[in-house]
Amino acid sequence: MQLYKNQALKIYNSLSGDKELFTPIHEGSVGMYVCGPTVYSNVHLGNCRTFISFDLVFRYLKHLGFKVRYVRNITDVGHIEDDADEGEDKIAKKARIEKLEPMEIVQQYSVDFHQILELFNNMPPSIEPTATGHIIEQIETIKQIIENGFAYESNGSVYFDVVKFNETNHYGKLSGRNLEDMISNTRDLSGQDEKRNPQDFALWKKAEPQHIMRWPSPWGDGFPGWHLECTSMSTKYLGNHFDIHGGGMDLKFPHHECEIAQNEACTGQSPVNFWMHANMLTLNGKKMSKSTGNNILPREIFSGNNEILSKAFSPTVTRFFILQAHYRSILDFSNDAILAAEKGFNRLMEALEALEGLKTSDKSSIDIEAWKQSCYDAMNDDFNSPILIAQLFEAVRYINLLKENKETITVADLKLLSETLNAFVFDVLGLVDEKTASNNNDKLEGVVNMLIGMRNEARANKDFALSDQIRNKLTELGIELKDSKEGTTFSIQS
Question: Residue ranges of the Cysteinyl-tRNA synthetase class Ia DALR domain (predicted)?
């Protein structure tokens, strides 16, 4: 029997403002879409918090036995600088400044994004579509919205008619905003704007002559609006109605609000059952932001090359720090906070290491089954990772008492304790035992050095076929050899 059949998972739904019992649309399967990064700069820790939070959701759903299709997009075009409809495309602007092709910018920062999430031990999504790879789908979505009477063309651009939509639907239901209030608080842009209403947003923007990223469309050369890609890609891979849509709290308005409007205008139905939003990460009590410079990059944390922290901290300790707060809570990053997280992480790893040496008895003085359910109860309460971690430290306390012979445990209960701890620490929280990883790296280095020695011997014997075969096989495995006067070294390509 799948675990989800015995566990009542409740998820906080941003749309209703309540925790609701999660029942997937299709028995045993979950469709989840999460808004990915706009790849015009290095991903900072605040961005990573969102993706680590939804990695936790992904991991726990899989742990419960659900078949999960997790879709996370890459925004590689159409994200205007001020997140509205004016200004310059962020990627095009970066390309202009650095005198590169926009797709060079996209490639550079997409690679950085994937490398960082891999270091954090995030599982890759099931599908990772790009905006530029789905221009046709976005154009078709716009055509349908126009046909349904909720969009209009103006001077080569297409805008969503928010006022017309609000006559039959509710624009603002996710963010709790009222359109009449929004209109009354907007200054008059008469004569300065090609929109019918200031609240209307772009589905397609006309490309000016200097605009680099452009595609042909029925309305002329241009590029899609930022909000449109998620509507087109989520419905393509998950259908018109799916289970979960996630993203950062800052996306609730206008991005997710516009998504709902687009979906309803296009398909006539609400797209998502559960809207989830991860809260922001602050740095020393202030909002973490690329634009203000109050941010820290993950690589700066891992290397210690920064002016904020007293030392370097590993990716898994940083991940543990992030998961110590509930995903909907604001989390402040500071030197003291991550130092405390490192101490806690080390205690947890030491306890796991001590499991193998524990003595067993004929009876248990600890109710391991009840403790195990308390771990599930924590995660079933809207993925409450800090409560789960508190329960894991309760297990650490048990282990220490067992080491001191102050409690007893049976063989079966010790096995259950070990299996449950390992499942929640490594499979659900996604932490990594650094000592084991370090030992594995040492073993890998030994094997590669042995092969380098065999290759050197083959070269000395003029057996160049074997020498090349060893190099080529290592290259296929992502291990690159570099020959120099001092000898041969290797590097592992990520």
Answer: 374-440
User: With 70 as the cut, is the pLDDT of residue 86 above it?
Assistant: no
Please enumerate, by residue number, every residue annotated as part of a binding site for ATP.
Answer: 290
Mind listing the domains of the chain with CATH numbers?
A: 3-278 (3.40.50.620), 282-436 (1.10.730.10), 438-492 (no CATH)
Whole-prediction pTM value? 0.87
CB atoms within 10 A of CB 455: 21
| Distance of alpha carbon 12 from alpha carbon 20, whole angstroms | 6
- Write out the binding residues for Zn(2+): 35, 230, 255, 259
Nearest to 475 by CA among 467, 463, 486, 464: 467
Q: What value does the mean pLDDT take over residues 463-481?
A: 85
The 8-class DSSP code of residue 408 comes to -
Residues making up the binding site:
35, 230, 255, 259, 290
Residue 344 near residue 320, CB atoms below 8 Å: yes
Identity (one letter) of the amino acid at 345? F
Q: How many CA atoms are closer than 13 Å to the CA of 349, on its beta-carbon side?
A: 16
Predicted local distance difference test score (pLDDT) of residue 80:
64
